[in-house]
What we know:
The structure is a homotetramer.
Chain A: H1 3-17, H2 27-40, E1 44-47, H3 63-76, H4 80-85, E2 93-99, E3 104-110, H5 125-128, H6 144-159, E4 165-172, H7 181-186, E5 195-201, E6 209-211, E7 214-215, E8 219-228, H8 244-255, E9 266-276, E10 285-294, H9 297-317, E11 321-330, H10 337-348, E12 355-357, E13 360-361, H11 368-377, E14 381-387, H12 405-424, H13 428-434
Parallel strand pairs in A: 3-4, 3-5, 5-14, 6-12, 7-13
Antiparallel strand pairs in A: 1-2, 2-4, 6-14, 8-10, 8-11, 9-10
Helix pairs in contact in A: 1-6, 2-6, 6-12, 8-9, 10-12
Amino acid sequence: MSEPIRNRLSAVRRDFHCHPEPAWREFYTTYRLVEELERIGVDELAVGADAYDPADRMAVPDEERLEDWRERAREWGADEDALECMAGGNTGAVAVLDRGEGPSIGLRVDIDGLFIEEADDVDHLPAAEGFRSKIDGAMHACGHDAHMTWGLAALEAIAESDFSGRLVVFFQPAEEVSGGGCPMARSRFADDLDYLLAVHVGLDHPTGEVVAGIEKPLAMAHLDVEIEGESAHAGKAPEEGANAMHAMGTAIENIYAIPRHSDGMTRVNVGYAEAGSASNVIAEHARMEAEARGETTELMEYVESRFERIVRSAATLHDCEAEVDVVSKSPRADSDPELAAVVADVARGVEGVDRVVERADFGASEDATFLMERVQAEGGLATYLIVGTDHPDSHHTPHFDVDERSLEHGAAVLVETIRALEEQGASTSRSTAATGGTR
Amino acid sequence: MSEPIRNRLSAVRRDFHCHPEPAWREFYTTYRLVEELERIGVDELAVGADAYDPADRMAVPDEERLEDWRERAREWGADEDALECMAGGNTGAVAVLDRGEGPSIGLRVDIDGLFIEEADDVDHLPAAEGFRSKIDGAMHACGHDAHMTWGLAALEAIAESDFSGRLVVFFQPAEEVSGGGCPMARSRFADDLDYLLAVHVGLDHPTGEVVAGIEKPLAMAHLDVEIEGESAHAGKAPEEGANAMHAMGTAIENIYAIPRHSDGMTRVNVGYAEAGSASNVIAEHARMEAEARGETTELMEYVESRFERIVRSAATLHDCEAEVDVVSKSPRADSDPELAAVVADVARGVEGVDRVVERADFGASEDATFLMERVQAEGGLATYLIVGTDHPDSHHTPHFDVDERSLEHGAAVLVETIRALEEQGASTSRSTAATGGTR
Amino acid sequence: MSEPIRNRLSAVRRDFHCHPEPAWREFYTTYRLVEELERIGVDELAVGADAYDPADRMAVPDEERLEDWRERAREWGADEDALECMAGGNTGAVAVLDRGEGPSIGLRVDIDGLFIEEADDVDHLPAAEGFRSKIDGAMHACGHDAHMTWGLAALEAIAESDFSGRLVVFFQPAEEVSGGGCPMARSRFADDLDYLLAVHVGLDHPTGEVVAGIEKPLAMAHLDVEIEGESAHAGKAPEEGANAMHAMGTAIENIYAIPRHSDGMTRVNVGYAEAGSASNVIAEHARMEAEARGETTELMEYVESRFERIVRSAATLHDCEAEVDVVSKSPRADSDPELAAVVADVARGVEGVDRVVERADFGASEDATFLMERVQAEGGLATYLIVGTDHPDSHHTPHFDVDERSLEHGAAVLVETIRALEEQGASTSRSTAATGGTR
Amino acid sequence: MSEPIRNRLSAVRRDFHCHPEPAWREFYTTYRLVEELERIGVDELAVGADAYDPADRMAVPDEERLEDWRERAREWGADEDALECMAGGNTGAVAVLDRGEGPSIGLRVDIDGLFIEEADDVDHLPAAEGFRSKIDGAMHACGHDAHMTWGLAALEAIAESDFSGRLVVFFQPAEEVSGGGCPMARSRFADDLDYLLAVHVGLDHPTGEVVAGIEKPLAMAHLDVEIEGESAHAGKAPEEGANAMHAMGTAIENIYAIPRHSDGMTRVNVGYAEAGSASNVIAEHARMEAEARGETTELMEYVESRFERIVRSAATLHDCEAEVDVVSKSPRADSDPELAAVVADVARGVEGVDRVVERADFGASEDATFLMERVQAEGGLATYLIVGTDHPDSHHTPHFDVDERSLEHGAAVLVETIRALEEQGASTSRSTAATGGTR
Lengths: 439, 439, 439, 439
């Protein structure tokens, strides 16, 4: 790849990097995506509520929590027209190239950041080179800045080529809360796709390595808990309270101890918790944000049901009431080996890629599975591929960073795979499915 | 008391009631106090840093948390000069009447509100009659609005009388966090007081009842806890984290179980807790705001030391580090029976008071004990009296309210006690102390 | 007291000391008491089921647990006739002196040991001098060996005197489990008592001190818990179990954290717990032996009801079932000041007694309150007195021991009090009560 | 198989079934094995300390716990000579057939029962047909009664055949505590084995199914915990205790919550726990029997190290001291596919076997891995095979039972596999190893 392109990829990624925005608050991010997409020129561009049905969204924060971020996007330079399109937190976009005969190919990249405070020591490259997060307590700590860069780069390269077929790029919001996968999967843009490519950076695979298809993205549920007790004066009448703080403590202690399951891997985490008001008041209220995962959808549901029983019992134990709200859920879906084989073949020919793994396990969850499931259900093929990067620390930690050499690798793998699929044409199974067959 | 005075007491109290401000953020409250005090006319008026040494303050929030409240006070009408005096959160005031020969008498009232959301149902009088808190999540739920009203009313009545002596009224901020008692007690205004009266409304005593002196205000410590762990991806590598959320849960479970002590009453509460960031991240950080109380200072310290061991061990158990910060402490001090007897005598003659209790136990804590301890150490007498009120629900709960008939009772008891002390002159013990004796 | 008597008291006490037997298993102890009582010669001697209605007993262990102890008593020399009288674990005895006109006076001493392993280091006198417990894991760690010695000594002295009246000595079993007080109080021997003396050694009062009457023996309930879950293979299918072990852990964590109560002192303890079978089996079963105490009967019931909710909720949380059985309960009862005054007067004249306390608080529980309550309800007077002893370590610990000088003190105080009451005659209130009056 | 043989297998198994004996207490069981082996006639028979070095044993209970079981075995008819051979709890035996040229083949069966109370309802066949466990609280709930029956049956069939080679049958004690595998593996009987067969019944495979080789027997450690605190009177001075009961509760709550590991399966269980003495004593002592498992030896050690930190921290939190003793450990070992292939081939020809699985996962642990590891390290081949049985409820539960049709299947598979291996001769790799090569 040429120096200018390389620099351009880096510049785009760094702009995204220093403006991390959490789920359904990707206002500046979407604005910048639109700006780039308009520059590139696409045949159809749908933003926010035009891209999907807002009612299909999951884990949407209330308007109050959106407002600060909208204001901040405005300060960062997002224009009013763009913000208007995203009223109600309908962020994200879908861009389409419609270039005549040929297969219909989807590419899905996610765009949201995380509530993690980015490291600011000199050993952390974004800090040293001045593109550290501009907002304390939020960070692109999972590489979605790289994903968007790939989405734009692939689209631009294909747009400039003689590609024949249909390319749909999903710039999906709210992946971290499993909130945006479902609306994208149910949108008209997901109709009749022959192929779907979803892509992730890193995941402990080094720069130069490509995994052509992953298995076992964990099924996941996001769970919000509210516990209501009764306040009382902690000194004068502690026995009069119904202690929501204590109920929360009992719940936390037991949630992590949900028994392992002999059918396979499970995960559970309480990632955010808050309770009470002041030190001399028995806490009236507590809330927790948690998640349950499983190697299969059944295993996730096993964890979820245990979670609910624990929370309710812990509340009863302390004379409180609890509500557990399933904010969002994503299923498990595996990569199709036929499609992964195409990716693997292509990757072997990409400069800088020195190791190609056909299939690997995946210990995390992903709501790309909604799109994969939809495409596979209609007879198409889907794969979830990983482009390795030397990341200095784990995903979701303050020192996470992307080795920018992988920006080129990912762009090249995606572009070349799309061209290879163009050559191959629509998959047989899809055609069958279209005429009534089922997978 | 005349109808107009009665109405005036109610109006003042309701103004304070609907503008509740938490510890060291009593900007509007202090502004209104100053306005009233200037109207009354006093011989000396010291606001904020003029009233005490800011370095003696405890439990002061950081500037960021002050700012919102200063802004709100401005919106509510506090003028810039007043706010200027309170820069850095130096709220509260001391007012002095200096009227020639006679005893030196202190009166202490507290002024802060609580982080409790006030009830808004029609059964709650402040809601029904339109003086409910103007700010969600804060409330005068401990009657400090009545206390201030008494302080102003007593001062006004004495100012208009032929009183001879010195009257010092402490409008003390930050009682709820035991933060303002110490600076007031160390200030020059607490020098050479012959008598100190501290007063509280309600505390489960009905309208018409007066308790002349209380025993056993619990000694108290406010404790802030920070737990540091390490974040990790909850799905991909839960074992890599050091889970501050889980450490917090273990701490909460065990803090409430600190063994009861055979030497007397103890209390412990975790009143506020927060941990983590997002549901898919193992929590890196947790913090708690807690308190330890004891019937004696030693018992409070017993609870405090167990608290610290529990928090540190819970952190170690989960591979985290914890810090426990003792934000503030207040000692135990008892009422002097000689002074309580004066109050009791006076109260028996006050209209509307139908029951006088010489002494009662007190299940809560109070940083008035700093002033009491200072005055008693220098040979003066101190009492902490309660003016009963029919309160519909407990202190520190959303439906707490004051029966306004007790406004008159309290004002009358205070004014008449001050006049009785004027007649009695300086206490003998004080004179002795002044000439070198000790109590 | 003469040297031979002193030696005799010591010998008797040491024989009891090295044969400690737990509640309702005092087979050897009762046998020895009977032997001594027969030697002394009494007017009526009732053993076991002759002394009380077995159906009134509480906290009786099952036959299997009795059997070992009966066998051991046999080995220690208890004869078959004596054991026959105690079939079904009906241990203990009541001895009566009926000597004509005069007041009817009750004396209650308790006789059971504890499941504590006695210290065997040379610093522990019973070990050094060869009268350490003959059975591992059981011990007279609360001084009941001294109590029985006093009971026998007082009876012997009165029997040999010209006493006129009725003396009833209750050798009560099963005090430690609050099991024997109720049947003794309901027996015919408790009818029409003018006075009741109950006595305890030590309780942190030193040798030479006597407390004439105590207040606030805590009300108490003994609680047995059974938790039923479902076993499973811990390696192959941990999710299939319902983990009674885990439910027990959750219960323990929360039981100790039952909120302190503003009305007064409470206590709670899980003193014995056992769960599970083998390390590779998810525990199917757990059981706990616990107690709840309160400064009043209401406070004890507050703790008890919280206890039950916690245990049930902890079981539900882990998909188990729990049963809470209230094994026994004892009320609160206070000493009558008139009677305590008699004891105090007498004690001041006893050789070796150098300090007399009229009244003291009592931090523990006692089922002597059943007898006290009965006597007081019928118009008699009751007191619970303490004879101090320098005990090297706390009651209920392996190094507890009695300073044998207090054996004489206690015997003298009891004998002289009985003589003083003989002189005083039946209390007025009793006479009134007998003719229809009420207290 | 003929009716008489079938009946004989059933009779032998039922005799073992109703005499279950836990680890290192298999006195009657070993006596019966010796009786049967002497009847069959073998070339070498080593019992107890003759079969292995007692110092290599793990998880041996103290003499006191052995004594009851020895006494019971005597009552059940074990003769003194046999019991003599097992002094010190050296149970189990090794039997050898030495029949000239040919491969050296090991067969390992385990012999111990579990501390589980067997069901006694009529739906439970052993109860209905009168061979339910004769001792309350112990049970053959894992099918070792069937394993021994197979060992004897195979030995008898081979003894009566023209087999040429060496057959060594390990009747291994203490499998359930991973205590007997190591001494057997280090004994001279494990020298120079070409093949090792270990066998288990059931494990959720139905009657008629055979699994020729299993993978992933979890590595395992048995952990014993002692917690020492300080006792105190729970009513009088709860603050003076250091509560071992509470420390145990905190430990249990947290042990089950050891984070899942991204490298693979882990397990943890506290299978037995006991604490305290009586309800009115703060518990001085607690002990727990637990286990840690992992898909690899490293994962097991991860759990073990977390376990230790939790236990120590929970003790510190409650001012107690804890000791964690690693009683025994067993490594992971996988079946060799070459040997499993032989078993699979043979099984396909056995009457009644209708499904053969080449390889399956195994969710439990097994100390047969010691023998497998030893044989594999010396160049031999090992497999762990499963003979299915319709078991009405899970292993390690009160209703577990074996479908006796599988007794024939297992015996036939083992006999035919031994004959097939005789034909095949020593494995090549072993020969290589014997001459200096390594695997």
